[in-house]
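Let's study a protein:

===
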Amino acid sequence: MALALGALLPLPALTAAVLGVWRIAADLKLAGSFAIPDGFFSHWQVWMALAALLEACAFALNRYGKNGDPASS
């Protein structure tokens, strides 16, 4: 189960990173207006942090799924 979830998480992480880059580009007037104009999810930092968190979870789940023990290296 951990390996399956670990394999599925990189795509949402990539999506969050793309939204973060889009927000940065919109702020620099290099892209069209961002889809979420105001609120918590209108900040690029939120999207980049979410992308990093999802990727870290995918890494941890893959490591756990392959080893069976998260403490072993």
In short: The chain has one domain: 2-32+39-67. The chain has a mean pLDDT of 92. Residues 23 and 38 are 11 Å apart (CA to CA). Helices lie at 2-8, 10-27, 44-67.
